[in-house]
């Protein structure tokens, strides 16, 4: 059984519609795929319809953007109650902050003579998308300033660049608590992907575990073999399970569906821990 528990649609920073992510999963011969857009559930309904049509299992999830003393942390929340008021309010706040962050970054670029516009960024993102740096990257590509999203993140959009701006994000321990309160199952995404930037120390993950963290996404293309091994070892020490995922973004990244997968026993554990009433969609 092939299970990929981390993908993104155009509801956040992927390039495919939610239904098309599920279609791509079917073409990749995945048995189960999770849709985990950043700070939004907007892609869920279309993904459910496609999953039922195509016979692909669907895990409904969300990726919550967190920060700990300025270090970015991403938390995957699986099978949460989408109507849980506290978690919903937190996601709304994060999306609003992302919007103003994009506005500030674009304004700084325009002031330096970089020929992009906020209207261009929004048009490329599409209606209802959670705005983020990848959409600014798309505008830079569209204007011929750089060649790819990856190139933009190596320079103009990287953490610490002159155009970088922060946005609101909850502490990861608080986010774990919110996911559990919403009946979901929290898993830390790519915890040791140091190639992306600074990562938190083991003591933060230990605090997240005490708050209810269920697992670590160990198998991820942004982990070196040593980082993956550390994730597996730490998970064993803390009594957590491990997952593997693609972090698929369509053509927005080189990540390929199913390039890392999760054991069926772990998916069963996620379903067993969920308390929200949100179930894995199966035809």
TrEMBL record:
It comes from Pedococcus sp. KACC 23699. InterPro entries: PHP_dom, PHP_domain, Pol/His_phosphatase_N, Pol/histidinol_Pase-like. Residues 3-68 form the Polymerase/histidinol phosphatase N-terminal domain. It holds the Pfam family PHP. GO terms for molecular function: 5'-3' DNA exonuclease activity; 5'-3' RNA exonuclease activity. This is PHP domain-containing protein.
